[in-house]
Amino acid sequence: MEYIRVTKENLEKEHICCAISNNKDVQVSSKKAWLADRFEEGLVFLKSVERGKCFIEYIPAENAWVPIDAEGYMYIDCLWVSGSFKGHGYSSDLLNACIEDSREKGRKGLCILAAAKKKPFLADPKFLKYKGFAVCDEADNGIQLWYLSFDNDADKPQFKECAKHPHIDEKGYVLYYTSQCPFNAKYVPILDKTAKENDIPFKAIHIESREDAQSAPTPITNYALFHDGEYVTNEQMNDKKFMKLVNG
Q: Are residues 124 and 228 in the same domain?
């Protein structure tokens, strides 16, 4: 498999694996705009040259859009290999490239979000454990911070206090999300429209800065849905899934 690094210079002409379409598609344009502002902060997007979901995205943890204390580490936003790409060792290829790059840049290690049991849009804990990762912190909602240290004496990454106990004071459905995930550009408006049509209390909070993301009341900032103050899910929803959730 050949891989290519997406940069500010080739961003317009390269496809992004998590939303394969043309640049006029709202999902693609949203994600590419978010990426364009992150490259100068050290973000790396490495993907298969073939079209499909086979990529890794990572950034120095100090610049990550998650509420963690992990100075000196590299944070993996997403490692996604699916469909026909699975079972060929590509996940290992991408992770190894990240490890090599992070070592060369003098990072202390890697960290990434997961859970004890595999959840949608989060890393597979079995794969992480196989690759030598271990849990270094866990929030009340079961979201875990995993790490792979290059230095046994390095401090372990941890969640910031605001993220360890995911809870908000607002009633109804409240969604925190960023433009890091391209699906949000399509599905958040659908949820908003569905809620209004069915008189469901709903509020979408678009996190638009690293500072706001790092102080969010949830360990997951890509997509975190709350109901009456309690965390519900990180899984993106269409109108049918949302109404199924609402109706129990």
A: no
